[in-house]
TrEMBL record:
Coiled-coil annotated spans: none
Catalytic activity: cytidine(4) in tRNA(Gly)(GCC) + S-adenosyl-L-methionine = 2'-O-methylcytidine(4) in tRNA(Gly)(GCC) + S-adenosyl-L-homocysteine + H(+); cytidine(4) in tRNA(Pro) + S-adenosyl-L-methionine = 2'-O-methylcytidine(4) in tRNA(Pro) + S-adenosyl-L-homocysteine + H(+); adenosine(4) in tRNA(His) + S-adenosyl-L-methionine = 2'-O-methyladenosine(4) in tRNA(His) + S-adenosyl-L-homocysteine + H(+)
UniProt GO BP: tRNA methylation
Enzyme Commission numbers on file: 2.1.1.225
Segments forming domain CHHC U11-48K-type: 58-85
Alphabetized InterPro entries for the sequence: Methyltransferase_TRM13, SAM-dependent_MTases_sf, Trm13, TRM13/UPF0224_CHHC_Znf_dom, Znf_CCCH-type_TRM13
Known role: tRNA methylase which 2'-O-methylates cytidine(4) in tRNA(Pro) and tRNA(Gly)(GCC), and adenosine(4) in tRNA(His).
Family, similarity comment: Belongs to the methyltransferase TRM13 family.
Molecular-function GO terms, alphabetical: tRNA 2'-O-methyltransferase activity; zinc ion binding
Protein name listed in UniProt: tRNA:m(4)X modification enzyme TRM13
Keywords: Metal-binding, Methyltransferase, S-adenosyl-L-methionine, Transferase, tRNA processing, Zinc, Zinc-finger
Amino acid sequence: MYSLCVLTQLGKVAAENIMEETRCKFWLPKKNRFCSNARLNDSSLFCGNHNRRTDGQWIPCPIDPSHSVLKENLDGHVKRCPLLKQVRSLSQQPFYHKGINAGKEDDEEELGAVTSTAVEDNVTSEMKRNAVHSMTVPEFCNLIKKIESVHALICNGICDSFKIPEACGMWIKREIDRKLPFQEKHVTQQASILGNLEEFGVLKNSVGVNQDDEKATPAVVEFGAGRGYLTQMLADCYGTKRVFLVERKSYKLKADRSLRQKESLTIERLRIDIEDLDLSAVESLRNVPYLAIGKHLCGPATDLALRCCLMEQYTQDNVEHCSSNNYIRGLSIATCCHHHCQWKHYTSKNIACLT
């Protein structure tokens, strides 16, 4: 018996040594170990992620720009890109319209009467960023002072509004399913978004409200939904019956599983970029009033969501895609990453030019 244990242990050691020889030799300083992936081949010391790139020209994949491929391999790659099937499926959806909410770099129709003070032709957001990077320190400090002055002039009536509604008590007191993730920072932020909607009277506590009544909680569209835990709180505390989760990425540990266990709740996840979403073409949302919510809509995503919801923001070119079959009852968005905002997507160009 002892000899068998020794042989088993020796076998494990031998197997580990073999695996060690075939592993990538790239050192990971933060993890204090070598990469655990397998090497590309016997002649290479590294895996595909850490192998030194060839001298060929690398270009972004036209299907998924988050990765790049060799120009000489592009034709073959686009036929087997992992996102190809998803893109084809999305393009067949009636609510997909490429760039419908994107806006334009210099939209004279949006600028209206202030076209005389509009930005010069062919001045892109990238050119403006380069102009900022080329500034001297005194010039940059002077620009900051001007921005702060304009902000104080326009936004002096805006104040903080932190609300924790009574309806969200079950989450605040942690009287929820222990399987659901609880982080106090996120819970208080989510509760405040819903609390401000309740304060404005567009969100009603489901207690004592007839769901057939016009005051009952309407459908909810969450932009940039991520895992959907803002909608989870809304469904738990306000009893909404229909939710639409708009998110372009795929996430693990989503709230969808918990939400689908609610028999009275209908959930629909739209995996699409807000820039390409024609909300009026979502069949199950037609003739239904809805609330629009979003937590941490990064950079231009806030402007894209506003264009998506507010039909009057559409240009004449897109008027055929607009519909009065659905209408927004309220909107609450928490913005973030303002340094990612772009002039092309900005929804208030006329105000910006006036200032």
